[in-house]
């Protein structure tokens, strides 16, 4: 059964919708009938600054599925779509209708919450809203988008034993966007750039992809 997603940012206070913690998101989405289907369009409805973080959060969940090839093939294109929109300067994510009507089940969100709750609790003690210019400046936002496009391409490729690695790396971007933490975004940039250089250009994976386009 499909039901509207809960409002983790508080419908009563519009300003509260500008910031939401990752664990709060998971708790809200995991609460209720495990068979409920959470539509992506409902998850993003009314969000402002955290909309891209919310969509990226949901988009990388398949990367943690223990199914080689399939997980990256689902998450990779979603990450590329999100990154491309940030790259061109969109302020709010857009989804085609066939994606907006789809999304995870509550039971999937519950499993992911249980799997990550311990280290998310530790990490959330370190993150907080700060250096928000790193998140909001058009050039910085475009750079974030570029890294997400490249990481999404790498995630979609059948590179052995990298789904979890890229999933954890992309979670840094998620937390930075949801928690409005520019300092964490700088860390995500550095880690993302290292991953792109190491797995993309040095190994030749991204070069082969680009060659295949021309």
TrEMBL record:
Q: Does the keyword Transmembrane apply?
A: yes
Q: Which InterPro entries match?
A: ExoD (IPR010331)
Q: Which UniProt keywords apply?
A: Membrane, Transmembrane, Transmembrane helix
Is Transmembrane set as a keyword in this record? Answer: yes
Kindly list the residue ranges recorded as spanning the membrane.
Answer: 70-88, 134-155, 161-178, 185-207
Q: What is this protein called?
A: Exopolysaccharide biosynthesis protein
């Amino acid at each position: 059964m499909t039901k509207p997603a809960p409002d983790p940012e508080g419908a009563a206070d519009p300003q509260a919708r500008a910031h939401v913690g990752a664990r709060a998101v998971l708790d809200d989405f995991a609460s209720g009938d495990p068979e409920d289907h959470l539509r992506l369009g409902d998850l993003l409805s009314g969000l402002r600054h955290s909309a891209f973080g919310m969509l990226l959060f949901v988009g990388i969940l398949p990367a943690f599925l223990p199914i080689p090839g399939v997980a990256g093939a689902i998450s990779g294109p979603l990450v590329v779509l999100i990154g491309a929109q940030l790259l061109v300067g969109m302020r709010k994510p857009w989804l085609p209708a066939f994606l907006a009507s789809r999304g995870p089940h509550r039971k999937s969100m519950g499993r992911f919450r249980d799997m990550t709750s311990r280290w998310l609790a530790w990490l959330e003690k370190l993150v907080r809203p700060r250096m928000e210019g790193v998140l909001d400046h058009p050039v910085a936002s475009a750079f974030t988008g570029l890294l997400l496009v490249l990481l999404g391409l790498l995630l979609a490729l059948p590179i052995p034993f990298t789904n979890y690695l890229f999933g954890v790396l992309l979670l840094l971007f998620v937390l930075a966007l949801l928690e409005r933490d520019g300092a964490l975004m700088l860390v995500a940039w550095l880690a993302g750039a290292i991953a792109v250089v190491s797995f993309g250009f040095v190994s030749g994976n991204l070069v082969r992809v680009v060659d295949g386009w021309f």
